[in-house]
């Protein structure tokens, strides 16, 4: 099992790569058969190729992401994330709670993001 420190490091890399990485950089944090459900309740993205395509769309925006309050239990982590996207003259802020599971090498096996349109602010 990945150690709590390894898991926290992957969470930190995830936020950094959302801010300044490519879709491929982000997908590399996941296992080949990982699943992403973002937001929860939408169709999941299954497998690294589908995950990379999902993040390719996400990475089109000018994003900054910062994680806070990482809680690790066993092979899972839950944490708050503040994501700010700038699109034209609008700034969109979302504050999801992400829950990730990890394999023994510290790769993400699943990610579920808990947020809805009601959680967004647009300025």
TrEMBL record:
Signal peptide: none annotated. It holds the Pfam family SnoaL_2. InterPro entries: NTF2-like_dom_sf (IPR032710), SnoaL-like (IPR037401). The keyword Isomerase applies. Its EC number is 5.3.3.1. Residues 11-110 form the SnoaL-like domain. GO terms for molecular function: steroid Delta-isomerase activity. This is Steroid delta-isomerase. The lineage of its organism: Bacteria, Bacillati, Actinomycetota, Actinomycetes, Mycobacteriales.
């Amino acid at each position: 099992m990945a150690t709590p420190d390894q898991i926290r490091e992957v969470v930190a890399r995830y936020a950094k790569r959302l801010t300044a990485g490519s879709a491929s950089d982000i997908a590399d944090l996941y296992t080949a058969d990982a699943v992403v459900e973002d937001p929860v309740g939408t169709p999941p993205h299954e497998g690294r190729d589908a995950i990379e395509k999902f993040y390719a769309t996400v990475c089109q925006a000018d994003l900054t992401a910062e994680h806070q309050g990482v809680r690790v239990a066993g092979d899972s982590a839950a944490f708050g994330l503040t994501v700010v996207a700038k699109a034209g003259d609008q700034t969109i802020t979302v504050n999801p709670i992400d829950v990730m599971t990890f394999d023994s090498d510290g790769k993400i096996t699943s990610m579920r993001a808990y947020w809805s349109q009601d959680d967004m602010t647009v300025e």
